[in-house]
Amino acid sequence: MQRLFLLVLVSIGFKPVFAQQFGGFPPSTNWRQIHTDTARLIFEGATEPQARQIATLVHQMAAEQPNALGNRLRKINIVLHRNTTLANGYVGLAPFRSEYYLVPPTNTFESGLLPWYQHLAVHEYRHVQQYNNFNRGLSKVFRLALGQEGQALANALTVPDWFFEGDAVHSETALTPQGRGRQPYFLSGYRSLWRDDRHYPLMKLLNGSLKDYVPNHYQFGYLLANYGYRTQGPDFWGKVTRDASAFRGLVYPFRQAIRRHSGQSYRQFAAAALQSDQQGIKPQPAGKAATVTNYHFPKPAGTDSLVYVKEGYNRLAAFYLKDKTGEHRIRLRNLSRDDWFTYRRGTIAYTALDVNVRWGLTDFSDIYLLDIATKKERRLTHKKRYFTPDLSPSGKSLAAVAINDSTQTELHILDSETGNVAHNIAGGAASYYLHPRFLDEDHLVLGIRRPDGTVALARMGITDGRTELLTPYSYYTVGYPSVEDNTVYFTASFDGNDDLYALRLEDKKVFRLTRGQTGNYYGNVEGNKAAWSEFTADGLQLRTAATDRLLWQEVTLDRLAEQPPAYPVADARSILATPAREFPVTAYKKGTGLVNIHSWRPYYEDPEFTFSLYSNNVLNTFTNTLFYRYNQNERSSGVGFSTAYSGFFPVLTAGVEHTFNRHTNLRVRNASTNAISNIPVQLRQSELRGGYYLPLNFTEGKTYKLLTVGQNGIFGQQAPLQETQKALPPALSDFLSQSYTYLHHSVNFTQQLPRAVQHIFPKLGYRLTADYRHRLDQQGYQLIGNAQVFLPSFGNHSLVLTGSVQQSDTANTLFSNRFAHSRGYANFDSSLMWRASANYHLPLFYPDWGFGGILYFQRVRANLFFDYTRAYNNAKTRSFNLLSTGSELFFDTKWWNQLPLTIGLRYSRLLDTDRARPSRQGLWEVVLPVSIIPN
């Protein structure tokens, strides 16, 4: 129990580390820096303008302390990455640092229209302010005891993740004219639940569901954070988090602080906050879908057909054709970070993910063309960053948004046969291009966003780049245009909801087509048929209608643009007007701060106690661990050091470990009496290792493909201490003095489909691992190989076949046994062993139930297994079998409303005799996770 408890606590502190890429950029990267007393921004030269504006916003927030959580200021290191298409950012402890991924998302309805680097600056620096001010009281004691990991642990125990993210979303919303809190898409999650009259328990809202759609902790957190600021004042959450992070009230300190400062219980406060978002929502209960499913960009393909992307909790994203005979899957979509696609003349154009083989923070978005008749697709571009492509009416050209090295947009017109760029229209710093669509072969309609976050629809000439505004610039989100019969159909957030609109080009009149309580997106029209997707509690659902059945209510855009915001935001004011400050820019040397000790951690697992120091540099290319270990059984003390550097193509690793005084017994047989006696001896032992590994990523198409190869050389030596040498005969002393040298080679390869929400394992894939150890100083080796194959079955069931083999040189037993026998049997070593297993995993039910804010059950699932092991004697002349069968019951849970853990119960029925315990016929076991640190 001690071990499990320590693992749980440490894992929370470790959590931010796993958001980082260890050595994700090549050594040729030329880093620059803006270094002040508030922040150090590390960036590449092409993104210097963004770095300067980020620095200005960070300093402004640090100086003004809006909605202050406290007045503590600690400098943060911020690393800007421009070569990954993953739109993200984070702040983490252990070590204290932040990373911004500067290429923005394409779904502006979800993220808003604020320039992405400004969005990241405001949101992520709010996390910095949180961490700076949550180091109080008992949390400070945790930090003194464990370093930055200690504070991360204490904060995770006292401040829920929904507040971290909800408060940051409030900052991006209150301090700018955009932000997700102003976006109907962001708020449609809860509005869809209220409209469909679904009122889930609080624990379900906090923990989510694998069965039903539940908005995430960003949305839940924003509604509560904004409500607290609106009703209790700008200092409310500062008081709550000050008490909670200081552990004022050891049991549920955050909930107690809400009651103390609001006069309401936590449940009452949450209910009131959510109720405030229900105003104006008229319940319209509809039949509940069996599984949450999303339909993206439905496009009429003739009088009786639709083409769309469909994905859901039980299925991966794929292209489908729906006609009068039913729904037909065309082809599974390649891995992609964008749901956008276009369809014309029997061809689908979309973008898919491509990666750099070695550097994880460099990836690409390339255009693919799919023929729906033949179901064959071809890759049009290579190693580019293209988004939202559109095919011209003739199908001979494509228009796509390209992101350049400065993370600005360019509009490329490409030849659809060769991928060559025929025209390049640069947006520069003044214009950010969004969602281009062909009006005809020579003109486009697209969104143009200005640096202040306002956007308008415009018509653009391809050859001359001349633009004509079709709608006025405003902070309302406008996008996803489509064109049919000289009319532009688009989605806009006018009047407080994302609805479909039509703009008639002949007279520039605008008509509202839908009036929903939640968003309507991806409108496409062909002839007299319209198709779109509506945000519901069962996902983005497919909707179709004859165009003459739509509203066609004429609207005046100037009047709409003058309306107040539909969703009140507490303490709203913009800091974007802050004049840009001038900061000196200098080179950033990669060797800066290589040694950066951030955390220290005690760990006990009987019989060993370990105390370790951890160091990671800001660029996350150099990691080090220094440790002391005491073994209470052997009364031995030892020290060790391990290091890894990932700044080169291979990751270089090394380590050393020395044990000073190992107390053990030497078993000696008396030749005359044949009696065995134990002679106490004291030894010193040392081990030195060095090597490398290559983490390679060949992901492309529909599957992840990961290869890691490595090699280590290990030299070890042991010798008796002087007291033992004096007490033993020379022969025994020489026997105890020995050394060994061996090489360890390893290779791991994985290829698999991604998993949908309800998939227990990938529907198709395999994993192969092989390890070979062999001595250089004398005879001795060990070879072990493992294979795992994932095969599809009914629904969300999974058939998993595994195999393993281990062979060792019996003349030398230096290498420990790493073979897993059939379940239920005691482990033992043999010269040759192999095992084959079959596992059938299936979900049983989804409880969506918990208690006390401590434990929540998301899913209960079972596994039926059969294991067959064969082991041989040293001469390989005889063998015996170990067969077992049984079942496992797994509980997929969340603890404290945020930590996912799977715990199982196993019964193994032995079909052969267990050589270690011959009387055993069956075995019950509790299956605990090998690692509880989330990936």
How would you characterize the overall build of this protein?
This protein is an alpha+beta fold. Helices cover 18% and strands 43% of the residues. The chain has 16 helices and 47 strands. The chain has a 17-stranded antiparallel β-sheet that branches. A six-stranded mixed β-sheet has the order 4-5-3-2-1-30, with helices on one face. Strands 22-23-24-25-29 form a five-stranded antiparallel β-sheet. A hairpin with a 2-residue loop joins strand 10 and strand 11. Helix 1 packs across helix 6 and helix 10 packs across helix 13. It is globular. It starts with a helix and ends in an 8-residue tail after the last strand.
Biggest pleated sheet: 17 strands, antiparallel
C-alpha-based Rg, rounded: 31 Å
Number of helices: 16
Q: Give the integer mean of the pLDDT values.
A: 92
Low-confidence stretches: 1-19, 931-935
How many DSSP-defined strands? 47
Provide key terms for this protein:
single chain, 935 residues, alpha+beta, 17-stranded antiparallel sheet, six-stranded mixed sheet, globular, disordered C terminus
